[in-house]
Amino acid sequence: MLSIGELSRATDCKVETIRYYEKIGLMPEPARSAGNQRRYGERHRDRLHFIRHSRQLGFRIEAIRELLALSDQEHRDCAAVDALARRHRDAVDDRIGALCALRDELDRMIKGCAGGDVAHCGVIEVLGDHRLCRNDHPLEAVAGKQ
Amino acid sequence: MLSIGELSRATDCKVETIRYYEKIGLMPEPARSAGNQRRYGERHRDRLHFIRHSRQLGFRIEAIRELLALSDQEHRDCAAVDALARRHRDAVDDRIGALCALRDELDRMIKGCAGGDVAHCGVIEVLGDHRLCRNDHPLEAVAGKQ
DNA sequence: TTAAATAGCTGTAGTCACTACAGATAGACG
DNA sequence: CGTCTATCTGTAGTGACTACAGCTATTTAA
């Protein structure tokens, strides 16, 4: 039986995060010691590994909930899992595209700025006037929403 | 003089967001009508354009605060602006790299999943076992923190 | 055995950049 | 004058944690 600290070290997941996952129902409530401390088994550890790895791959909590439900089924619906993973990959792809466009825009902006103490700062100018930009950059694709 | 709704349409920025920027001190308090409604001038519109465009380019609010302070100076410190923009571009670059690695990982995972009703679902397997992964994927670089 | 050090408990609030609402007032138009 | 839309303030919600306060449990050393 693992204490929450041992589980934390075993999964590289902070203690607070483990309790948070329990609160939102992503991790099941574990057994308790006589003094009311959490005691975890292997199943908990495996599940937390699954969750953490999914998060590292950028899946959202709600997607992970679905993945867990699918993986718990007797006869796994692999097609559904596959679809979820593909959707996520495509979303990541879109984000990469948006960020590349953004980087190019930033690059152009920086190149227009010579550096030094001048009244005509290219960067400031571009920031103040969208028309100096080559393309649109929708905020959503850039911000961390995935 | 523009009402908050007119400014909103002129800058493609929601009314609530304008009030939010005022509350956090990013936009100055405007004049008021007899009935206590906000009335904006050109300077406000220019400043909000600057803020929105900077946000679209992924700058954080605190960075925009700095950019605004720098752009307000009599003798602009263009080098400081340049450095800020470069730091931001480099951060975007790092994120692109992380997301590309992530997408490749997702691709490999999806390829290992044939689809259908099988006990050995490649995706679920990989998610449960980090060792089946090629590389590390630190959560921070992937999550939308910028 | 006991004291100290470490670990764990619950509950709440903070992060970021908004967004959404509720309940009130202002202004524009016919 | 009535109606409709716009605006007002203030608060709470979002996602996925993180941090803290004030307490209790457990472990280790003396």
UniProtKB/TrEMBL annotation, chains A, B:
Keyword Hydrolase part of the UniProt annotation: no
Keywords annotated in UniProt: DNA-binding, Transcription, Transcription regulation
A Pfam family per the record: MerR-DNA-bind
Residues of the HTH merR-type domain: 1-70
PROSITE patterns noted in UniProt: HTH_MERR_1, HTH_MERR_2
Transcription is among the record's keywords: yes
Chain coiled-coil ranges: none
Top-rank taxon, per record: Bacteria
Name of protein: Helix-turn-helix domain-containing protein
Organism of origin: Alloalcanivorax gelatiniphagus
